[in-house]
Amino acid sequence: MRVTVLGAGSWGTTVAALACGRNTATLWARSADVADAVNKKHENPTYLSGFPLPGRLAATSDIEEAVTNAELLIVGVPSHGFRETLQLAAPYVHPWIPVVSLTKGFEQGSLLRMTQVINEVLPGRPAAALTGPNLAKEIMAGHAAASVIATKDLAVAGALQSVLTRGLFRIYTNHDVIGCEVGGALKNVIAIATGIAEGLSVGDNTRAGVISRGLAELTRLGVAMGAEPATLAGLAGMGDLIATCISPLSRNRTVGERLGKGERIEDIIASMRMVAEGVKTASTVMELAERYQVDLPICAEIRNVVTGHAGAIDAYRGLLRARPGHEADPG
Question: What CATH topology corresponds to 2-175?
Answer without folding.
Answer: Rossmann fold (3.40.50)
